[in-house]
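ugh finaly. both done.
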Amino acid sequence: MRRFVRRDDGQSLIELALILPAVMIFLIFGLVELGTLLSDDMTMASASREGARLGGALVNGGGTLGCSAGQSPNASTVDMNIVAAVERVLTGNGTRIKLSDVSQIRIWKATATGAETSGLVNVWNYQLNGGPTVDGQPLDFVQQSQPWQPCARNNVTPVDSIGVTVVYTYRAQTPLRFFMPYFNTIGIADHTVMALNVSR
Protein backbone atom coordinates (compact mmCIF):
# COMPACT_ATOMS: atom_id res chain seq x y z
CA MET A 1 0.00 0.00 0.00
CA ARG A 2 2.81 2.39 0.86
CA ARG A 3 4.41 1.77 -2.54
CA PHE A 4 1.08 2.54 -4.28
CA VAL A 5 0.68 5.88 -2.45
CA ARG A 6 4.17 7.00 -3.48
CA ARG A 7 3.58 6.36 -7.19
CA ASP A 8 2.70 9.34 -9.40
CA ASP A 9 1.34 7.55 -12.46
CA GLY A 10 -2.05 9.35 -12.36
CA GLN A 11 -0.81 12.78 -11.34
CA SER A 12 -0.95 14.27 -14.86
CA LEU A 13 -4.43 12.93 -15.41
CA ILE A 14 -5.70 14.50 -12.17
CA GLU A 15 -4.04 17.84 -12.98
CA LEU A 16 -5.63 17.82 -16.43
CA ALA A 17 -9.03 16.97 -14.91
CA LEU A 18 -8.71 19.98 -12.58
CA ILE A 19 -7.40 22.50 -15.13
CA LEU A 20 -9.30 21.56 -18.31
CA PRO A 21 -12.79 22.58 -17.10
CA ALA A 22 -11.51 26.03 -16.05
CA VAL A 23 -9.81 26.54 -19.43
CA MET A 24 -12.96 25.41 -21.26
CA ILE A 25 -15.15 27.78 -19.24
CA PHE A 26 -12.84 30.71 -20.04
CA LEU A 27 -12.89 29.78 -23.74
CA ILE A 28 -16.69 29.52 -23.80
CA PHE A 29 -17.12 32.85 -21.98
CA GLY A 30 -14.60 34.43 -24.34
CA LEU A 31 -16.49 33.20 -27.40
CA VAL A 32 -19.79 34.45 -25.99
CA GLU A 33 -18.27 37.88 -25.33
CA LEU A 34 -16.72 38.03 -28.80
CA GLY A 35 -20.03 37.08 -30.44
CA THR A 36 -21.94 39.66 -28.41
CA LEU A 37 -19.35 42.36 -29.16
CA LEU A 38 -19.51 41.63 -32.90
CA SER A 39 -23.32 41.68 -32.80
CA ASP A 40 -23.30 45.08 -31.07
CA ASP A 41 -20.76 46.40 -33.57
CA MET A 42 -22.97 45.32 -36.47
CA THR A 43 -25.90 47.14 -34.86
CA MET A 44 -23.75 50.28 -34.51
CA ALA A 45 -22.75 50.01 -38.18
CA SER A 46 -26.40 49.65 -39.24
CA ALA A 47 -27.41 52.64 -37.10
CA SER A 48 -24.68 54.93 -38.50
CA ARG A 49 -25.48 53.77 -42.05
CA GLU A 50 -29.20 54.51 -41.62
CA GLY A 51 -28.40 57.96 -40.20
CA ALA A 52 -26.07 58.79 -43.09
CA ARG A 53 -28.59 57.47 -45.65
CA LEU A 54 -31.33 59.68 -44.22
CA GLY A 55 -28.95 62.64 -43.98
CA GLY A 56 -28.11 62.22 -47.67
CA ALA A 57 -31.80 62.03 -48.58
CA LEU A 58 -32.92 65.02 -46.48
CA VAL A 59 -29.92 67.06 -47.61
CA ASN A 60 -30.44 70.69 -46.50
CA GLY A 61 -34.15 70.88 -45.71
CA GLY A 62 -35.43 71.16 -49.28
CA GLY A 63 -36.31 74.28 -51.24
CA THR A 64 -33.70 76.72 -52.47
CA LEU A 65 -30.20 76.00 -51.18
CA GLY A 66 -29.02 78.49 -48.57
CA CYS A 67 -29.58 79.84 -45.06
CA SER A 68 -31.45 83.06 -45.91
CA ALA A 69 -35.17 83.61 -45.31
CA GLY A 70 -37.28 81.25 -47.41
CA GLN A 71 -34.37 78.95 -48.23
CA SER A 72 -34.09 75.34 -47.01
CA PRO A 73 -37.45 75.63 -45.18
CA ASN A 74 -37.19 72.32 -43.28
CA ALA A 75 -33.53 72.66 -42.31
CA SER A 76 -34.33 72.80 -38.59
CA THR A 77 -35.70 69.23 -38.66
CA VAL A 78 -32.92 67.54 -40.65
CA ASP A 79 -30.51 66.63 -37.84
CA MET A 80 -33.22 65.58 -35.40
CA ASN A 81 -34.60 63.18 -38.04
CA ILE A 82 -31.11 61.75 -38.56
CA VAL A 83 -30.78 61.14 -34.80
CA ALA A 84 -34.28 59.61 -34.72
CA ALA A 85 -33.31 57.20 -37.52
CA VAL A 86 -30.19 56.14 -35.60
CA GLU A 87 -32.19 55.69 -32.41
CA ARG A 88 -34.82 53.54 -34.19
CA VAL A 89 -32.13 51.11 -35.34
CA LEU A 90 -30.53 50.98 -31.89
CA THR A 91 -33.84 50.18 -30.18
CA GLY A 92 -35.28 47.93 -32.91
CA ASN A 93 -36.35 44.32 -32.54
CA GLY A 94 -33.55 41.89 -31.83
CA THR A 95 -31.02 44.42 -30.56
CA ARG A 96 -29.67 44.26 -27.03
CA ILE A 97 -28.26 47.79 -27.06
CA LYS A 98 -28.97 50.00 -24.05
CA LEU A 99 -29.30 53.59 -25.22
CA SER A 100 -27.69 54.76 -21.99
CA ASP A 101 -24.47 53.09 -23.23
CA VAL A 102 -24.57 55.17 -26.43
CA SER A 103 -22.83 58.31 -25.25
CA GLN A 104 -22.86 60.34 -28.46
CA ILE A 105 -24.11 60.67 -32.02
CA ARG A 106 -22.00 62.88 -34.27
CA ILE A 107 -23.15 64.38 -37.60
CA TRP A 108 -20.32 65.89 -39.59
CA LYS A 109 -19.14 67.14 -42.95
CA ALA A 110 -16.72 64.64 -44.46
CA THR A 111 -13.46 65.58 -46.14
CA ALA A 112 -12.43 64.06 -49.48
CA THR A 113 -10.76 61.23 -47.54
CA GLY A 114 -13.85 60.55 -45.40
CA ALA A 115 -12.57 62.14 -42.18
CA GLU A 116 -14.36 64.68 -39.99
CA THR A 117 -13.94 68.28 -41.14
CA SER A 118 -12.56 70.20 -38.17
CA GLY A 119 -15.10 72.64 -36.77
CA LEU A 120 -18.05 71.14 -38.70
CA VAL A 121 -19.21 68.44 -36.30
CA ASN A 122 -22.70 68.47 -34.75
CA VAL A 123 -22.76 66.62 -31.43
CA TRP A 124 -25.77 64.97 -29.77
CA ASN A 125 -25.32 63.50 -26.26
CA TYR A 126 -27.49 60.92 -24.52
CA GLN A 127 -30.17 62.20 -22.16
CA LEU A 128 -33.25 60.06 -21.52
CA ASN A 129 -36.30 61.72 -23.15
CA GLY A 130 -34.38 65.00 -23.17
CA GLY A 131 -34.32 65.67 -26.91
CA PRO A 132 -36.82 67.16 -29.35
CA THR A 133 -39.97 65.25 -30.30
CA VAL A 134 -40.01 63.39 -33.63
CA ASP A 135 -43.14 61.51 -34.76
CA GLY A 136 -44.68 61.98 -31.30
CA GLN A 137 -41.72 60.48 -29.42
CA PRO A 138 -39.07 62.47 -27.53
CA LEU A 139 -35.52 61.64 -28.59
CA ASP A 140 -33.06 60.36 -26.00
CA PHE A 141 -30.31 62.61 -27.36
CA VAL A 142 -29.83 66.33 -26.85
CA GLN A 143 -28.05 68.59 -29.29
CA GLN A 144 -24.84 70.01 -27.80
CA SER A 145 -23.50 71.84 -30.85
CA GLN A 146 -24.41 72.49 -34.48
CA PRO A 147 -21.65 74.32 -36.35
CA TRP A 148 -22.55 72.52 -39.62
CA GLN A 149 -25.96 73.97 -40.35
CA PRO A 150 -28.20 71.83 -42.60
CA CYS A 151 -29.07 74.87 -44.72
CA ALA A 152 -25.36 75.23 -45.58
CA ARG A 153 -25.02 71.67 -46.90
CA ASN A 154 -24.31 71.65 -50.61
CA ASN A 155 -26.09 69.15 -52.85
CA VAL A 156 -25.05 70.82 -56.11
CA THR A 157 -22.00 69.37 -57.88
CA PRO A 158 -19.55 68.95 -56.25
CA VAL A 159 -21.79 67.72 -53.43
CA ASP A 160 -20.89 67.57 -49.76
CA SER A 161 -20.63 64.22 -47.99
CA ILE A 162 -22.22 63.60 -44.61
CA GLY A 163 -20.74 61.41 -41.89
CA VAL A 164 -22.59 59.92 -38.93
CA THR A 165 -20.72 58.41 -35.97
CA VAL A 166 -22.27 56.41 -33.13
CA VAL A 167 -20.13 56.18 -29.96
CA TYR A 168 -20.95 53.22 -27.69
CA THR A 169 -19.55 51.53 -24.58
CA TYR A 170 -19.74 47.73 -24.66
CA ARG A 171 -20.27 46.12 -21.26
CA ALA A 172 -19.33 42.46 -20.80
CA GLN A 173 -22.16 39.99 -20.27
CA THR A 174 -20.42 36.96 -18.76
CA PRO A 175 -18.53 36.46 -15.46
CA LEU A 176 -15.36 37.00 -17.50
CA ARG A 177 -15.69 40.69 -16.57
CA PHE A 178 -14.80 39.85 -12.97
CA PHE A 179 -11.53 38.18 -13.97
CA MET A 180 -10.58 40.50 -16.83
CA PRO A 181 -11.94 44.01 -16.14
CA TYR A 182 -10.78 45.19 -19.57
CA PHE A 183 -13.77 43.37 -21.10
CA ASN A 184 -16.25 45.22 -18.91
CA THR A 185 -16.02 48.52 -20.81
CA ILE A 186 -14.86 48.55 -24.41
CA GLY A 187 -15.42 51.69 -26.48
CA ILE A 188 -16.84 51.28 -29.97
CA ALA A 189 -17.20 54.13 -32.47
CA ASP A 190 -18.73 53.24 -35.82
CA HIS A 191 -19.19 55.73 -38.64
CA THR A 192 -20.60 55.90 -42.16
CA VAL A 193 -20.01 58.51 -44.87
CA MET A 194 -22.40 59.12 -47.77
CA ALA A 195 -22.67 61.81 -50.43
CA LEU A 196 -25.68 64.10 -50.28
CA ASN A 197 -28.32 63.42 -52.93
CA VAL A 198 -27.69 65.66 -55.93
CA SER A 199 -30.26 68.31 -56.91
CA ARG A 200 -31.91 67.62 -60.26
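ok and the 2nd:
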Amino acid sequence: MKLRFALALSLAVLVLDQWAKVWIKTHLMLGEEIRITDWFILHFTENPGMAFGFELGGNWGKLALSLFRIAAVGFIVHWLIKVSQRESSKGAVISLALILAGAAGNLIDSAVYGLFFDHSYGQVATWFPEGGGYAGFLKGKVVDMLYFPLIDTQLPEWLPLWGGRPFRFFEPIFNVADTSISVGIGLMILHQKELFPKEEEAETAEAPSEAEQIERQDPPASAV
Protein backbone atom coordinates (compact mmCIF):
# COMPACT_ATOMS: atom_id res chain seq x y z
CA MET A 1 0.00 0.00 0.00
CA LYS A 2 2.81 2.42 0.83
CA LEU A 3 4.45 1.89 -2.52
CA ARG A 4 1.18 2.41 -4.40
CA PHE A 5 0.52 5.60 -2.47
CA ALA A 6 4.05 6.85 -3.15
CA LEU A 7 3.84 6.14 -6.87
CA ALA A 8 0.40 7.77 -7.08
CA LEU A 9 1.75 10.88 -5.35
CA SER A 10 4.78 11.00 -7.63
CA LEU A 11 2.55 10.66 -10.70
CA ALA A 12 0.22 13.43 -9.51
CA VAL A 13 3.09 15.86 -8.91
CA LEU A 14 4.69 14.88 -12.22
CA VAL A 15 1.45 15.52 -14.15
CA LEU A 16 1.05 18.93 -12.48
CA ASP A 17 4.67 19.83 -13.24
CA GLN A 18 4.44 18.84 -16.90
CA TRP A 19 1.05 20.51 -17.39
CA ALA A 20 2.44 23.80 -16.04
CA LYS A 21 5.55 23.60 -18.24
CA VAL A 22 3.68 22.71 -21.42
CA TRP A 23 1.14 25.49 -20.82
CA ILE A 24 3.89 28.07 -20.31
CA LYS A 25 5.85 26.79 -23.30
CA THR A 26 2.85 26.95 -25.62
CA HIS A 27 1.39 30.26 -24.42
CA LEU A 28 4.34 32.57 -23.71
CA MET A 29 7.48 33.66 -25.49
CA LEU A 30 10.77 33.43 -23.64
CA GLY A 31 10.99 36.31 -21.16
CA GLU A 32 7.24 37.02 -21.10
CA GLU A 33 5.43 36.99 -17.79
CA ILE A 34 2.00 37.03 -16.21
CA ARG A 35 1.84 39.10 -13.03
CA ILE A 36 -0.56 37.46 -10.58
CA THR A 37 0.37 39.80 -7.71
CA ASP A 38 3.33 42.07 -6.97
CA TRP A 39 5.16 39.14 -5.41
CA PHE A 40 3.81 36.19 -7.44
CA ILE A 41 4.77 36.22 -11.12
CA LEU A 42 4.71 33.57 -13.85
CA HIS A 43 7.89 34.41 -15.74
CA PHE A 44 8.89 32.10 -18.61
CA THR A 45 12.55 31.24 -18.66
CA GLU A 46 14.58 28.17 -19.60
CA ASN A 47 17.84 26.90 -18.22
CA PRO A 48 20.13 24.09 -19.37
CA GLY A 49 21.26 23.32 -15.87
CA MET A 50 20.10 22.46 -12.40
CA ALA A 51 17.30 23.56 -10.08
CA PHE A 52 16.45 27.21 -9.42
CA GLY A 53 18.21 28.41 -12.56
CA PHE A 54 21.72 27.20 -11.69
CA GLU A 55 23.49 26.26 -14.91
CA LEU A 56 25.98 23.63 -15.98
CA GLY A 57 26.94 25.11 -19.34
CA GLY A 58 27.85 23.62 -22.69
CA ASN A 59 26.49 20.63 -24.58
CA TRP A 60 28.62 18.23 -22.57
CA GLY A 61 27.34 19.79 -19.36
CA LYS A 62 23.72 19.30 -20.47
CA LEU A 63 24.39 15.70 -21.46
CA ALA A 64 26.19 14.92 -18.21
CA LEU A 65 23.38 16.44 -16.17
CA SER A 66 20.73 14.48 -18.09
CA LEU A 67 22.61 11.23 -17.55
CA PHE A 68 22.96 12.06 -13.87
CA ARG A 69 19.20 12.63 -13.65
CA ILE A 70 18.54 9.23 -15.24
CA ALA A 71 20.83 7.54 -12.72
CA ALA A 72 19.23 9.52 -9.87
CA VAL A 73 15.70 8.51 -10.87
CA GLY A 74 16.72 4.85 -11.01
CA PHE A 75 18.40 5.04 -7.61
CA ILE A 76 15.44 6.82 -5.99
CA VAL A 77 12.99 4.24 -7.36
CA HIS A 78 15.10 1.43 -5.88
CA TRP A 79 15.37 3.28 -2.56
CA LEU A 80 11.64 4.00 -2.47
CA ILE A 81 10.80 0.32 -2.97
CA LYS A 82 13.10 -0.69 -0.11
CA VAL A 83 11.78 1.97 2.29
CA SER A 84 8.14 1.15 1.50
CA GLN A 85 8.77 -2.49 2.39
CA ARG A 86 10.14 -1.58 5.84
CA GLU A 87 8.31 -0.35 8.92
CA SER A 88 8.71 3.24 7.78
CA SER A 89 6.35 6.14 8.41
CA LYS A 90 4.32 7.69 5.64
CA GLY A 91 6.45 10.84 5.92
CA ALA A 92 9.61 8.95 4.98
CA VAL A 93 7.90 7.42 1.95
CA ILE A 94 6.44 10.79 0.90
CA SER A 95 9.88 12.42 1.02
CA LEU A 96 11.26 9.98 -1.56
CA ALA A 97 8.09 10.14 -3.65
CA LEU A 98 8.39 13.94 -3.93
CA ILE A 99 12.08 13.82 -4.79
CA LEU A 100 11.35 11.16 -7.41
CA ALA A 101 8.60 13.29 -8.99
CA GLY A 102 10.86 16.35 -9.14
CA ALA A 103 13.80 14.50 -10.60
CA ALA A 104 11.60 12.80 -13.21
CA GLY A 105 9.91 16.09 -14.11
CA ASN A 106 13.15 17.90 -14.90
CA LEU A 107 14.49 14.81 -16.64
CA ILE A 108 11.59 14.85 -19.09
CA ASP A 109 12.37 18.46 -19.98
CA SER A 110 16.03 17.85 -20.66
CA ALA A 111 15.43 14.53 -22.42
CA VAL A 112 12.63 15.28 -24.90
CA TYR A 113 11.55 18.93 -24.89
CA GLY A 114 14.27 19.73 -27.42
CA LEU A 115 12.75 17.13 -29.74
CA PHE A 116 9.08 18.05 -29.20
CA PHE A 117 9.22 21.85 -29.34
CA ASP A 118 10.83 24.55 -31.44
CA HIS A 119 12.59 27.48 -29.74
CA SER A 120 10.77 30.21 -27.82
CA TYR A 121 12.90 33.21 -28.83
CA GLY A 122 10.50 35.88 -30.11
CA GLN A 123 7.75 33.32 -30.70
CA VAL A 124 5.45 30.92 -28.91
CA ALA A 125 6.76 27.38 -29.29
CA THR A 126 4.80 24.81 -31.26
CA TRP A 127 4.61 21.04 -31.04
CA PHE A 128 6.65 18.93 -33.47
CA PRO A 129 7.82 21.70 -35.83
CA GLU A 130 8.53 20.75 -39.46
CA GLY A 131 12.20 21.65 -39.20
CA GLY A 132 12.66 19.61 -36.04
CA GLY A 133 13.03 20.65 -32.43
CA TYR A 134 15.48 23.11 -30.96
CA ALA A 135 17.86 20.47 -29.52
CA GLY A 136 18.74 16.78 -29.61
CA PHE A 137 17.87 13.98 -27.22
CA LEU A 138 19.02 14.67 -23.62
CA LYS A 139 20.05 18.22 -24.58
CA GLY A 140 16.83 20.10 -23.94
CA LYS A 141 16.30 22.94 -21.49
CA VAL A 142 14.27 22.90 -18.29
CA VAL A 143 11.23 25.19 -18.27
CA ASP A 144 10.94 27.48 -15.22
CA MET A 145 8.16 29.90 -14.41
CA LEU A 146 7.55 30.42 -10.67
CA TYR A 147 8.95 33.75 -9.52
CA PHE A 148 8.42 35.18 -6.04
CA PRO A 149 10.18 38.57 -5.58
CA LEU A 150 8.86 38.94 -2.02
CA ILE A 151 11.09 41.94 -1.28
CA ASP A 152 12.01 44.48 -3.97
CA THR A 153 13.63 47.53 -2.43
CA GLN A 154 16.79 49.60 -2.20
CA LEU A 155 19.33 49.16 0.56
CA PRO A 156 19.89 52.20 2.81
CA GLU A 157 22.77 54.52 1.89
CA TRP A 158 24.44 54.13 5.29
CA LEU A 159 25.01 50.39 4.79
CA PRO A 160 28.73 49.69 4.09
CA LEU A 161 29.67 48.31 0.66
CA TRP A 162 26.09 47.64 -0.52
CA GLY A 163 24.49 50.95 0.47
CA GLY A 164 22.12 52.36 -2.14
CA ARG A 165 22.05 49.19 -4.24
CA PRO A 166 18.78 47.53 -5.28
CA PHE A 167 17.88 44.42 -3.29
CA ARG A 168 15.45 41.70 -4.30
CA PHE A 169 14.44 38.56 -2.43
CA PHE A 170 13.66 35.86 -3.69
CA GLU A 171 15.25 36.07 -7.16
CA PRO A 172 15.56 32.46 -8.43
CA ILE A 173 12.91 31.30 -10.90
CA PHE A 174 11.90 27.67 -10.50
CA ASN A 175 9.18 25.13 -11.30
CA VAL A 176 6.90 22.58 -9.64
CA ALA A 177 9.58 19.88 -9.91
CA ASP A 178 12.12 22.04 -8.05
CA THR A 179 9.54 22.72 -5.34
CA SER A 180 8.80 19.01 -5.02
CA ILE A 181 12.49 18.21 -4.60
CA SER A 182 12.95 20.92 -1.96
CA VAL A 183 9.95 19.78 0.09
CA GLY A 184 11.09 16.16 -0.24
CA ILE A 185 14.57 17.00 1.04
CA GLY A 186 13.04 18.85 3.98
CA LEU A 187 10.95 15.79 4.88
CA MET A 188 13.98 13.59 4.38
CA ILE A 189 15.87 15.54 7.03
CA LEU A 190 12.97 15.07 9.46
CA HIS A 191 12.83 11.30 8.76
CA GLN A 192 16.53 10.61 8.31
CA LYS A 193 16.59 7.89 11.00
CA GLU A 194 14.07 5.86 9.03
CA LEU A 195 15.71 6.49 5.67
CA PHE A 196 19.26 5.69 6.83
CA PRO A 197 18.80 2.85 9.36
CA LYS A 198 21.77 0.75 8.27
CA GLU A 199 24.32 3.29 9.41
CA GLU A 200 22.91 3.29 12.94
CA GLU A 201 22.65 -0.52 13.00
CA ALA A 202 26.28 -0.81 11.89
CA GLU A 203 27.41 1.53 14.66
CA THR A 204 25.40 -0.45 17.23
CA ALA A 205 26.82 -3.75 15.98
CA GLU A 206 30.40 -2.46 16.14
CA ALA A 207 30.05 -1.13 19.68
CA PRO A 208 30.48 -4.01 22.22
CA SER A 209 27.91 -4.32 24.97
CA GLU A 210 28.78 -3.61 28.62
CA ALA A 211 28.79 -7.33 29.43
CA GLU A 212 31.19 -8.06 26.54
CA GLN A 213 33.53 -5.31 27.72
CA ILE A 214 33.62 -6.82 31.24
CA GLU A 215 34.34 -10.29 29.85
CA ARG A 216 37.20 -8.96 27.75
CA GLN A 217 38.72 -7.11 30.71
CA ASP A 218 38.24 -9.89 33.30
CA PRO A 219 38.25 -13.37 31.71
CA PRO A 220 37.02 -16.17 33.98
CA ALA A 221 39.72 -18.11 35.89
CA SER A 222 40.46 -21.58 34.54
CA ALA A 223 39.55 -24.58 36.67
CA VAL A 224 42.39 -26.17 38.69
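summary for the 2nd one i guess: The longest strand covers residues 41-47.
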